[in-house]
Every structure is written in structure tokens, then in C-alpha cells.
Write a structure and sequence with these properties.
The complex is a heterodimer. Helix content of chain A is about 75%, strand content about 0%. Chain A is an all-alpha fold. Chain B is of the alpha/beta class. Chain B contains 16 helices and nine strands. A five-stranded parallel beta sheet of chain B has the order 2-1-3-7-9, with helices on both faces. A two-stranded antiparallel ribbon of chain B has the order 4-8. In chain B, strands 5-6 form a two-stranded antiparallel sheet. In chain B, helix 3 crosses helix 10 and helix 4 packs across helix 10. The longest helix of chain B is centred in the last third of the chain and has 35 residues. Chain B is elongated and about 110 Å long. Classes of the chains: A mainly alpha, B alpha/beta. Chains A and B meet through helix 1, helix 4, helix 5 and helix 8 of A and helix 13 and helix 16 of B. Bound molecules: iron/sulfur cluster.
């Protein structure tokens, strides 16, 4: 079995199994925890729970004005690489074909040049994020292996994908295999590291939104 | 039979001019990626060389490789190749049959001991002693071992001989293996393809005859001159690939506009062969030009790579079953862990009350 056969077959299959297993496990074990009933009396004019949660979610899309100047870089840079990653994952024809194999649906792809440009910008943005983490004393102090490894497994597929699409340095079968293996690594790490925020963010923001809006606070 | 006549003498006898030989030599030099100056040397070497004794063995195969060579639309090449070699044994092409045919093989082996080349098409059955493919009362395995013993070199023609091919495809009921797995003490050149490009066979044999040595080979023992680039590297649809313009079917607008066939399963990016440059039927076309993606037929295990129409970037596993099973397991463990926490909390509450 060649490296590419291994990557396309058993490696991705095993990684997807770990990913789905881990996400289901973590989400359910959180959702089914005993919830403490909020015994406080709702403040007059407090919005219904769902509305409060939605408002909080929308408000969190941009930092509040007093905090904005200090967190502008983090916010903008965060948007750049998140949007970039979405363009790469959902815009490249090869990725759509991969997803079509999994879920059966597909959509039109973006021109490869646009996706490659997005990948370059995303890489630069991720490097900037790492630079900030390494140079900001507070951020550096609170950073753990989880942060660095999550960054690494995110950067790796972007970098290897860009090289594969550009057919640089090595035969395409090797580049594609390495790229697929890097995706497998990302999928395996995803549920157990900080990348799980892609799912957990909805849970935590909803919880916080409901909690505070009931008390009349807008956060 | 191998003849003592030189190739030059043979060509003269057949009325082939020196000019034709020079043209052919120039073609060979180009084909085998040699400098243009090599063509004169090739012509001189070919004219002086004796015709190479070749024993052609056909094992588990479909005769497509022989068809490819003999039905080549380049009669010059076809003629030339048979002028370069003395084909002492070929079950499909020889006139004799039965004991006389076997005798021809044995006497060619005797007379050209250590100098003959064995060309093989077809894989070798090894299961149950190789009984699934026999000829003249002998298994292919026995014939191969016997014939290869005093050979100069072996040429595995076609993907079956080179990598096992279709007989080797899962579940491989005959225990088919490539020639190189059986013969490990002699040089084995692989000219893969299903079938291989006739010029690749002719060029390799001519190189052997001319230079008396093997051409440069890749990691799968294929001549680099033919198998140095992928189909994708030389594909005329490549600009569409680079732009992200893909045909979604065999008769949609993209297909009619000649867009890239990646989405319909083309394996060109991982297939090393010269189809896109040498083409087929005298340079008329090749599969991609005719509207079908490359099957990757010159690569090992091309039959078992997840399907001809499955795009290269798609997983070859069974995601539905795997994802379904993993989700069920994850949900089960998630519920169990939540229940454990609940029970733990209940116990803690009871303890604090008592
Ligand atoms: S048709 Fe196949 S070989 Fe040609 S550019 Fe597309 S993927 Fe590459």
C-alpha cells in the first residue's frame, strides 16, 4: 500500500472516526450534565432566553467600544484566518469533492487562484497570531501546549495544501498524501484540544447570554 | 532463431535504407531522452549489432500488450523492432505450436545462454504452486524460473507483469505476483501500462540492443525517459485544472468545453507515463483527449484504488459506516459519562445530607 493509499483510506477513516466519536462524546457529556435551575427572578424587561442568547452572540462579534482599540488586532486577525479557513475548506473544488464523498452534498467551487490567495493570507494571519502569542507577555504566560499544538495542526494542512496545489518540491502523490495525513492529525486532535471551540463556542455563548440577559446585563 | 547477421545487414537485405535507419535512430534518441548527437551513434551501433535474441513469455494476461505492439499505427517502429530482435519464442505470434514451440524456446536459451532477453507479459500465479496458469504441462512459475536462469535481462511488459495488474487485484484468487517478485537476481525493467505504449517497448528494447545496458530507471524500475513525468504534468487540460474549471460529468458543458477531468476521477496527477506526449494510434489521441479521465493504469494496484470515478481527493474508505459507528459509540460514551456525573452528584448530595 502506497503512502497515498494509506492516507486516502485507513488514515482518514480512522481520523474521522476519532473526530466524530470525540465530538459526540464531549458535546453529549456536557449537554447532559445536571443543570442547576436559575432560581433568580428575571429582571423586568429581560428578553426571552433565546433572544438574550442571540443578542449576546451578535454583540460578541465585535469588542465593545472601550475595549476595541486594545483588541483590534486580535479581532481583525481572528476574522482574517477564520474566514480564510472557511474559503479554503469550502471553496476549493478538491475539498468540495472530499466533503461530497462524506455527506453527499456539493456546491460550486471558487477559482483555484482565489483559494490559493486565501491560503497565503491565512498562513500569514496564523503566523501573525503565533507572533503575538510569543511576544505578548500575558498571552505567553497563559499559553500551554494545547494552544501551540492546536495552532500547529491548523497551520499544517494549510501549508501542505498550498504546496500540493502548487506541485512544489515533491511528487504530487507524496504532497497529497502528506496533506491528507495532516488533515487526519487535525481531525484526531480536534475534539480533545482547543479547536473544539468551533462547537463549544455556541454552547458557552448561549449559556452566558441567557444567564446575563436574565439579569438585565448586556454582554 | 538468433541470427549471426548484423542488424545493418538485415536492414539492407530487407531494402531499408540508411536514411530510414538514421531517421529511426533520431526518433529513438528523442524517445529515450538522449541528446540529439546520440542519434548517429545509435545508428552506427544498431547497424553493427547482432539482432537481440528475445524470448517472449505470456502468462496471466489478455494479449493486449502484444496487440498494442503489433497493431501499432507506426509500421516503421513495428518493423524496426522486429528487425532489431530475433523473436525466438512468442506463443501468439509464432507459427509453430506444441512440442516444436517449446523446442524453439529451449534451443534459443541454449544457443544464446547469458545473452538473451526475456520479455514477459502477464502476472505469475503462485497460489497452490502456480497451477492456475499452465502451458505445455508447466506452470508459468516454472517456465519463468527456468527461462530467466541464463537470461541477460528481463523486461516486464504491461502492468500485469510489472506490478501484478488485474490478476493481482483484490481478492487475487490465483496469488498473482509481478515478475520482479520471483526473479530477484537479474535486472528486470518494468514497462507498465494496460497496455503499455508501443513506442515505450520498442524504445527500451532498442536502447538495450544499442547500448548493451539498461536505460535510467525510476524507483519502480521503469525507464525514466518514458515514465519521468506524470500525465498531469503534460496534460493539455492542465490550464483548466489550474483555474479550477472542472467537468462535472462526461456530457456537461464543462466536458464539452474540454475542462479538466479531475472531478470525474482522473488519476493523471499521480500517474507516470507518456500518454499525453506520445499518445496512441500514431499520435492521434489519448484517453483524456477522448474525454475520459486517466485510470492510472501504469501504476501499481490501479484496480484497487477506490474506483476509477472517485476523485483523487476523496477518501477511499467507507465514511458512512465509520462515521455512523463512531457517532453511536461517542453518543453512548457521552451519555454514560453524564450519567456517571449525575450519580456521583446524587451520592455527594446524599452524603452531605446524612
Ligand atoms: S484531465 Fe487529469 S491529467 Fe489532465 S489536468 Fe485534469 S487532472 Fe490533470
Amino acid at each position: 500500500m502506497s503512502l497515498l493509499d494509506f492516507a486516502r483510506g485507513p488514515a482518514l477513516e480512522a481520523a474521522m472516526a476519532v473526530f466524530v466519536f470525540g465530538v459526540c462524546w464531549r458535546m453529549l457529556s456536557l449537554l447532559l450534565l445536571p443543570w442547576a435551575r436559575d432560581k433568580s427572578v428575571a429582571r423586568a424587561g429581560a428578553p426571552p432566553a433565546l433572544l438574550g442568547a442571540t443578542r449576546s452572540f451578535v454583540r460578541h462579534l465585535w469588542p465593545p467600544r472601550p475595549l476595541a482599540p486594545g483588541s483590534l488586532f486580535v479581532t481583525v486577525n481572528g476574522y482574517v484566518f477564520h474566514v480564510g479557513l472557511a474559503v479554503i475548506v469550502f471553496g476549493l473544488a478538491q475539498h468540495i469533492l472530499f466533503l461530497r464523498g462524506l455527506v453527499g452534498v456539493h456546491w460550486p467551487n471558487l477559482p483555484s487562484g482565489v483559494v490559493s490567495a486565501a491560503a497565503v493570507v491565512t498562513l500569514a494571519s496564523l503566523l501573525a497570531a503565533l507572533g503575538r502569542r510569543l511576544t505578548n507577555p500575558v498571552l505567553k504566560l497563559i499559553s500551554t501546549f494545547n494552544d501551540y499544538f492546536s495552532w500547529f495542526v491548523t497551520v499544517l494542512p494549510v501549508a501542505t495544501g498550498l504546496v500540493a496545489v502548487s506541485h512544489l518540491w515533491a511528487p504530487y502523490e507524496t504532497l497529497l498524501a502528506v496533506h491528507l495525513l495532516s488533515v487526519a492529525l487535525l481531525l484526531i486532535w480536534f475534539p480533545f484540544g482547543k479547536l473544539m471551540h468551533a462547537f463549544l463556542v455556541f454552547l458557552t455563548r448561549t449559556e452566558t447570554g441567557i444567564f446575563y440577559s436574565r439579569r438585565g446585563a448586556e454582554i | 532463431m538468433a541470427t549471426s547477421e548484423t542488424i545493418g545487414e538485415e536492414l539492407v537485405r530487407r531494402g531499408i535504407s540508411r536514411r530510414a535507419l538514421l531517421k529511426y535512430s533520431a526518433y529513438l534518441a528523442t524517445l529515450m531522452a538522449l541528446p540529439p548527437t546520440a542519434s548517429k551513434a545509435i545508428a552506427a551501433a544498431l547497424a553493427a549489432a547482432r539482432r537481440q535474441s528475445v524470448i517472449w513469455l505470456s502468462f496471466q494476461e489478455c494479449t493486449g500488450c502484444t496487440e498494442s505492439l503489433t497493431r501499432s499505427f507506426s509500421p516503421t517502429i513495428e518493423d524496426m523492432i522486429f528487425n532489431l530482435i530475433s523473436l525466438d519464442y512468442h506463443e501468439t505470434l509464432q507459427a509453430v505450436s506444441g512440442a516444436a514451440a517449446e523446442q524453439a524456446r529451449l534451443s534459443a536459451m541454449r544457443e544464446n545462454r547469458g545473452k538473451y532477453v526475456v520479455v514477459i507479459d502477464g502476472s505469475v500465479s503462485t497460489k497452490d504452486g502456480g497451477v492456475y496458469s499452465t502451458n505445455a504441462g508447466k506452470t508459468n512459475l516454472q517456465v519463468l524460473e527456468e527461462t530467466a536462469e541464463h537470461a541477460l535481462a528481463l523486461i516486464s511488459v504491461g502492468t500485469c507483469a510489472a506490478f501484478g495488474g488485474i490478476p493481482h487485484a483484490h481478492p487475487n484468487p490465483t496469488g498473482a505476483v509481478p515478475v520482479s517478485e520471483i526473479i530477484t537476481d537479474k535486472p528486470v525493467i518494468n514497462i507498465s501500462g494496460c497496455p503499455p505504449i508501443p513506442e515505450a517497448m520498442a524504445g527500451t528494447i532498442a536502447y538495450l540492443v544499442t547500448f548493451g545496458k539498461l536505460p535510467d530507471l525510476d524507483h519502480l524500475n521503469r525507464p525514466k525517459a518514458i515514465f519521468g513525468d506524470t500525465i498531469h504534468d503534460r496534460c493539455y487540460r492542465r490550464p483548466f485544472y489550474d483555474k479550477g474549471l472542472f467537468a462535472k460529468g462526461f456530457d456537461d458543458e464543462g466536458a464539452r468545453k474540454g475542462w479538466c477531468l479531475y472531478e470525474v476521477g482522473c488519476k493523471g496527477p499521480v500517474t507516470y507515463n507518456a500518454c499525453a506526449t506520445l499518445k496512441w494510434n500514431g499520435g492521434v489521441s489519448f484517453p483524456i483527449q477522448s474525454g475520459h479521465g486517466c485510470l492510472g493504469c501504469s501504476e501499481p494496484d490501479f484496480w484497487d484504488k477506490g474506483g476509477f470515478y472517485r476523485p483523487l481527493s476523496a477518501s477511499t474508505g467507507n465514511p458512512a459506516a465509520v462515521v455512523g459507528g463512531a457517532a453511536a459509540a461517542g453518543i453512548g460514551v457521552g451519555i454514560a459519562s453524564a450519567l456517571l456525573v449525575r450519580r456521583h452528584k446524587l451520592d455527594a448530595n446524599k452524603e452531605s445530607k446524612s
